[in-house]
């Protein structure tokens, strides 16, 4: 049953203002450098990663020159895994960008909703090696505090004095988008006045990359690292594992305006679905993603013709890109531009949806569409796939995410 117009209008009023953005990706440390790199279409794929030398697809996209002890308190950095360090650094930037001061806010009205895939895998792999080589007595007592997926929310809550609800969402590669959608819903339910949301992942490790390689999901272009991530291109052969974090500060629009803040953009709609089909392959009809798009549009009180840009999931895998392109062409016949920023950053896995939501908000703010990098021979499609940055007038965009387990999440982001 379709919602009434009154219901749809009420849903549209539950949007959240994005007042702060913090990014840390293979494109750089900080929102400006990340966005400049993505907008300009500069690849970040590394040469063969020496840490992954045993893996056939030993490519990666890492955060450049990251030093947690230099960017955070050294003691805190030593007590946290890389995935938590990423989130803390990104959150510092997001809170400052929002013009907020944790020393003066009511912590009981500040919450944290973050996403990640598997927590501190780097720590887990390191300590398992210690266990095997030296025995249980030498395993670090910090193993669990550093490794557990929920620790990033706990660490960030303590870091900023947020004593409201804090949680971690884990829906694999749609974790970031799901976390933002859940945070928006809790903000609308008056559980928070301010929420720090987004996602982080640091699982470019030998075991994880070997697992993806065994699934046949990774690019084998070790002789052409810069061209290895090529969403929607006929020559694509898999994704490149990446790491990083994206944190957004969400507030109610009225609260942001009362502070004299002009939001970057607004989270106006959210849709989440499950394919209920296969643990790693998307449904061949794309019905789960379709349902998530429909739900996000309804939530935003919008229709397909309102969509002016799509930040696609666009993983550079054979199956995903073909199905996603067909789905978008079928459902958006008016032909809005579509791009996947994974051509620049690689696939940030659990952090991808959060980082790409931030890129979508920045694109809306600047009225630009970031390019599809390495797209030299598009697979036959009716999509508009720009290969250079282009200015474009629009006020409504979708950011799509999908994941192993058939979990889909779509965010509707508006400029006003």
TrEMBL record:
SMART domains with a match to the protein in the record: PKS_KS (SM00825)
A Pfam family that the UniProt record links to this protein: Ketoacyl-synt_C
Residue ranges of domain Ketosynthase family 3 (KS3) in the record: 13-415
UniProt keyword list: Transferase
Keyword Transferase carried by entry: yes
TM spans (from-to): none
Record InterPro entries: Beta-ketoacyl_synthase, Ketoacyl_synth_C, Ketoacyl_synth_N, PKS_Beta-ketoAc_synthase_dom, Thiolase-like
PANTHER family, A to Z: BETA KETOACYL-ACYL CARRIER PROTEIN SYNTHASE (PTHR11712:SF347), POLYKETIDE SYNTHASE-RELATED (PTHR11712)
Family, per entry: Belongs to the thiolase-like superfamily. Beta-ketoacyl-ACP synthases family.
Name the record gives this protein: Beta-ketoacyl-[acyl-carrier-protein] synthase family protein
């Amino acid at each position: 049953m379709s919602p009434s117009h009154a219901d749809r209008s009420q849903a549209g009023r539950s949007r959240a203002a994005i007042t702060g953005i913090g990014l840390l990706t293979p494109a750089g440390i900080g929102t400006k450098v990340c966005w400049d790199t993505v907008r300009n279409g500069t690849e970040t794929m590394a040469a063969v990663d020496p840490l992954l030398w045993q893996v056939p697809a030993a490519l990666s996209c890492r955060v450049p020159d990251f030093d947690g002890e230099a960017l955070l308190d050294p003691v805190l950095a030593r007590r946290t895994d890389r995935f938590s360090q990423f989130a803390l650094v990104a959150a510092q930037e997001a809170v400052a960008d929002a013009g907020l001061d944790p020393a003066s806010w009511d912590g009981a009205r500040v919450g944290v909703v973050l996403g990640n895939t598997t927590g501190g895998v780097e720590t887990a792999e390191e300590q398992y090696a210690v266990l095997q080589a030296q025995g249980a007595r030498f395993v670090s007592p910090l193993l669990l505090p550093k490794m557990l997926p929920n620790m990033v929310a706990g660490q960030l809550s303590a870091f900023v004095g947020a004593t409201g609800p804090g949680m971690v969402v884990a829906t694999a590669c749609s974790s970031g988008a799901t976390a933002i959608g859940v945070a928006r819903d809790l903000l609308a339910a008056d559980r928070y006045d301010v929420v720090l949301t987004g996602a982080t992942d640091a699982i470019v490790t030998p075991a994880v990359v070997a697992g993806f390689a065994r699934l046949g999901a990774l690019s084998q272009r070790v002789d052409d690292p810069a061209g290895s991530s090529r969403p929607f291109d006929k020559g694509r052969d898999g994704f490149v594992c990446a790491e990083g974090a994206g944190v957004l500060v969400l507030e109610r629009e009225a609260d942001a305006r009362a502070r004299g803040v002009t939001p970057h953009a607004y989270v106006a709609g959210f849709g989440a679905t499950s394919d209920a089909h296969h643990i790693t392959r998307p449904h061949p009809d794309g019905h789960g993603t379709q349902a998530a798009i429909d739900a996000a549009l309804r939530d935003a009180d919008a229709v397909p013709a309102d969509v002016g840009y799509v930040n696609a999931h666009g993983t550079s895998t054979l199956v995903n890109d073909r199905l996603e392109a067909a789905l978008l062409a079928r459902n958006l016949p008016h032909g809005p531009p579509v791009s996947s920023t994974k051509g620049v950053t690689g696939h940030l896995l659990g952090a991808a949806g959060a980082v790409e939501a931030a890129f979508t908000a920045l694109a809306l703010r600047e009225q630009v569409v970031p390019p599809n990098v390495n797209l030299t021979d598009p697979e036959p499609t009716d999509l508009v796939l720009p290969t250079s940055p282009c200015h474009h007038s629009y006020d409504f965009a979708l950011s799509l995410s999908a994941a192993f387990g058939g979990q889909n999440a779509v965010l509707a982001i508006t400029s006003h």
